Structures are given as structure tokens and as C-alpha cells.
């Protein structure tokens, strides 16, 4: 059997993280300058069902039988077995390599979920639509994250900018002109499940404060939709700044993220905010194409462990 390759991009949430978990709108874009690549190689000399996983990023090299029940590969095989009625998988070697940093707000777990669903289904003879890949990847995300909104798997499965409201069909966005983004990493890993749980606990403890912050974040995302489509960059930038302030009030920023956001703005970015669950991970800045390198250099100088650029349309 020829090798099968399945690639997923990273993603950045431009508006609405956290609020999207509670049904408010959010906007996310794929980031193709980072990527997860899964290669499936047949292992005809191995017994049926013998599956080996090699992950070049995490250093993991294990047989399926040694992996935890909740490992994404185990979950993927369970979901595919029940949804596609696949009762046995041919022996295989799964090789994963990725430039999407783990636990950093760029969608590494959703990228893996999408690549596993797409790769394994193709390996067993199914050609699933992007919608079906997305639906099944969401099932994997639920096992990994508890209560994911579904925005990460959606933007990655379709590899297009999306306007997303939980439980509603995904709306694709296309921008009149490309957006130039600079995405910088604090180098601090942060786990979505934990940060989402903290926000939930705060929402219960502070019913006068947190629900209204989430509502306002949703309003910012709604206002940003039209500005993005018409590429009104200065309006988009201001809304990103407003979104970051609301996320600060929600308690999900941190000193390192705020430092990078301020450095980007001082270097001429039109707007900047944390992206993803926060408390570490990455921030995203909107730049004029001509000032990208200045913003990128300022972010590295301010302590970013890595700063990449992305063009999205
Ligand atoms: O940090 P990430 O890439 O897992 O993004 C999480 C986005 C949240 O809105 C915080 C959670 C969700 O499920 O939408």
C-alpha cells in the first residue's frame, strides 16, 4: 500500500476565544506557515492491528497497545471504528512531524485530530468530505479538552478563515485583501482544558462580571466580521486591542503576553491580542505588509521565543 500523507495547518483565533465556548461568535484563520504532517506507512509483515506511532516532536515511539486509552490515536481509532464501522485496521506505522508548537494556542491538538481522522480513514479506503472529517475530529477534541467549542477543528479541517458559532454551520470568510499577521510565542506552555476550566469557575463565582465580559467579547467578534471582509485594517486592529483588554479582564492574559502585545503596538502593529486559551502560548498582531519585519524584530527583542509571519486571505 502506498504511503498516505495528511497535513494540517495551525490556526490563530483573531476574535472571540473563551466566549465561543459559551455560544458567542468567534473568528479564526488557518496559519499555513506552521504545519503538522502525518504519514501512514503500511507494515505488511506485521500482524493485523499492529500500529506503531512515532512522533518526532514529542519523541514518542510506541505501539498502540502501550498507549493510554485517552491517547488521540486510541480515540481516533475508536471514533472511526464506531462511526465508519471499521472493525480492523491494517498494520501501520504512523509518523508525525510538526512545526506547530504544543499547548501554545496554535491548534496543535486539533491539527493532530484532523490529520488522524483524515489519514486513518483514507488508509482504510474512505474518502471523507471536509465536513465529515471536521465532525469526527470534534469527537476527538471532546475527549482531549472536555468542552471544546469546535472552532479549532473547524478552521483546521476546512483550512479557511471562519466565522464560528458553536452548534451552527461554519461560515467561511474571504477578505478583500490579504491580512498580514505576526504571531509570537511567549514560550510558556498552557493547557486549554485548564484555562477553560478556570474561566468556567470564575464565571460561576462572579456572575456579575464574567458573563458580561464574555458577551462583550462576542460583540467585538460580531463587529469585526464585516471589517475583516472589507479589510478595514485600522478598524480590525482597534477591535483586536479591545478584545485583548477584555481577555485581560477575564484573567487569561499574563505579563509575558502583555509585554509582547505592547511591543507589537509600539512597533507599529495596527492591533494585537493573545490568541487561543492564553496564560502563555502565542499572541497575534496585525501589521501593514511593509512593517512586518519591524514588528517581528520588536517581538523577538521583547522576549518572544519565536515569531512567524502569516498571510491570510
Ligand atoms: O489554546 P487553543 O488553541 O486550544 O484555543 C482554545 C480556544 C478556546 O476558546 C479557549 C477554547 C475553545 O474550545 O474554543
Overview of the structural elements:
With 313 residues, this protein is α+β, with helices and mostly antiparallel strands. The protein contains 9 helices and 11 strands. It has helices spanning 72-83, 108-123, 130-145, 151-158, 192-205, 210-229, 233-250, 255-266, 292-301, and strands at 4-15, 26-42, 51-55, 61-63, 92-98, 162-164, 171-172, 179-185, 271-275, 282-287, 306-312. Strands 1, 2, 3, 4, 5, 6 and 7 form a 7-stranded mixed sheet that branches. It has a 4-stranded antiparallel sheet with strand order 9-10-8-11. A hairpin with a 6-residue loop joins strand 9 (271-275) and strand 10. The two termini are 37 Å apart. The model has no long low-confidence stretch (mean pLDDT 95). Residues 13, 17-18, 20-21, 105, 107, 148-149, 151-152, 192, 196, 276-277 line the site of (3R)-3-hydroxy-3-methyl-5-(phosphonooxy)pentanoic acid (PMV).
Strand and helix map with partners:
Layout: E1 4-15, E2 26-42, E3 51-55, E4 61-63, H1 72-83, E5 92-98, H2 108-123, H3 130-145, H4 151-158, E6 162-164, E7 171-172, E8 179-185, H5 192-205, H6 210-229, H7 233-250, H8 255-266, E9 271-275, E10 282-287, H9 292-301, E11 306-312
Parallel strand pairs: 3-5
Antiparallel strand pairs: 1-2, 2-5, 2-6, 3-4, 6-7, 8-10, 8-11, 9-10
Helix pairs in contact: 1-2, 1-3, 2-3, 2-4, 3-4, 6-7, 8-9
Bound molecules: (3R)-3-hydroxy-3-methyl-5-(phosphonooxy)pentanoic acid (PMV).
